[in-house]
C-alpha cells in the first residue's frame, strides 16, 4: 500500500463528521450570514440588497444588555450544574450498583419531559396559591404564602433542573473510571476525603469538567420557553427576541444578525473554556 493510500485510509473516519459539520453547521451558518446582510421587505421577508443596517441596529445598549444577560445566564447555569454535579456524580459512582441505576433512571426520566411541562410545573410549584410556600407556612417557616414566580430565581431554577441530567450524562462515564487508589493514596498522606476530592480527583477531571460546562452552556443558550414561562420580560434571553423578530415581526434579516452575534459570542466562550480545560504540560 502506498503512502498516499495509507494517508487517505487514516483520514477516512473523519469524512462522516466533516460532512455532517458542513451540512448542518457551515452551510446553515453561511446562509444565516447572507440573510443578515439583506434588506428587510415586509411583503417578501427580505430583498437581496446588501446592507449593514441590521448589525448597526443590534449594536445598541438594549440588545447588548440582552446578549450579555443570555451569555451570563447560560454560564451561571453551567457553573451550578458542574459545581453540584461533580461531587454528586463522584459519590454516585462510589454507591452500590443498584443505587446508581435508581438515581440514573430518575435523572434521565427528566429528559422525557418537554420544556413546556417543566415550565408549567415549576410555575405552579413557585406560585402563591398552590406553591411550596404554602408548605413553609404550614411548617411555621413563613407567615404567609408568597409568589416566587415570575422571577430570575425561577428562571435559573427551571433551567438548572432541565440541564442537570445532561451534566450527569457527561460526568458519569469519566468519574466511574477513576482509580480509587488515587484517593486512598491521598488519605494515607493525611488528606481527609474532602481535601482528597479537591486536590486529586477534580484536577484529574479538568478536561471532563470543561466539556460538561460547554455542553450545558450551549444547551442553556438555546433556552426559549422557560425564560418566558418563569421570568419577566427583563429575564428573556436573546433566543426569545430572535424568535419574536423572525416569526412575529417578520424581520428575518435582523433576526439572522442577532443569531450571528449569538453564535460568534458562544463560540468564543466555548474556545476559552476548552483552553481552560486543557491539561497543563
Automatic annotation (TrEMBL):
Subcellular location field: Cell membrane
Swiss-Prot/TrEMBL GO biological process terms: transmembrane transport
Chief place where the protein resides: membrane
Keyword annotations: Cell membrane, Membrane, Transmembrane, Transmembrane helix, Transport
Keyword Transmembrane: yes
Residue ranges occupied by any ABC transmembrane type-1 domain in the UniProt entry: 67-273
Pfam family of the protein (one): BPD_transp_1
Membrane topology (UniProt): Multi-pass membrane protein
Ranges annotated as spanning the membrane: 12-38, 58-91, 103-125, 152-175, 196-226, 254-276
GO cellular component, one term: plasma membrane
Family: Belongs to the binding-protein-dependent transport system permease family. CysTW subfamily.
Protein name as catalogued: ABC transporter permease
